[in-house]
Amino acid sequence: MGVIDKLATSLNRRDETPNQELGQSIADHADKIAVKELVDNLTNRDKNIQSDCVRVLYEIGERNPELISNHVKDFLALLESKNNRLVWGAMTALDTITPENPETIHSGLPTIVRAANSGSVIARDHAVSILTKMITIRKYEKPAFKLLIEQLKTCPTNQLPMYAENAMRIVNNDNRKIFVNTLSSRVKSIEKLSKRRRFEHVIKKLG
User: Fold this and answer.
1) Residue 207: per-residue pLDDT
2) φ and ψ at 172, to 5 degrees?
3) Would the pTM count as exceeding 0.85?
């Protein structure tokens, strides 16, 4: 059986188990030929095959990111798609390989941010994660931090506590003030008490 024959769609399965198992197998065997076949089929006429392919690819990325790290541009292209499933799937894949190919990720940050602002919650979650990872790389720290602050200023309040908690690790003496001030400016917008307490805990810990 070829790789496409093993996708959930090809097996007439509605669950994701075949895609997860396929991703695991390809990652374990470092099968570059299978990766290429999956990437080639991201533009397949069948939207279900497209979706399954991107799912398998980010499953591979979570286990063996180096194996898909040369395909950043293919994932960036998907961020322009009108198919929301492909957009957040591609963003998930990009998140897994950011440390492997930060230079190409950096060049694609405008596309990543644009897709985050217009896409689903999942797409934004992974875009913020990408920015946080980029900040840990000194060469890209300042531009990525600026973009992260913009996300913290404009993202839905429901996501704020998680974003703040995940970004705590990038706070240093140089950026602490603007980070804390940005969070403080949004405290009153968080209506749910449990989320506000989480958020305030981050501010207190950093302040």
Assistant:
1) 82
2) -135, -175
3) yes
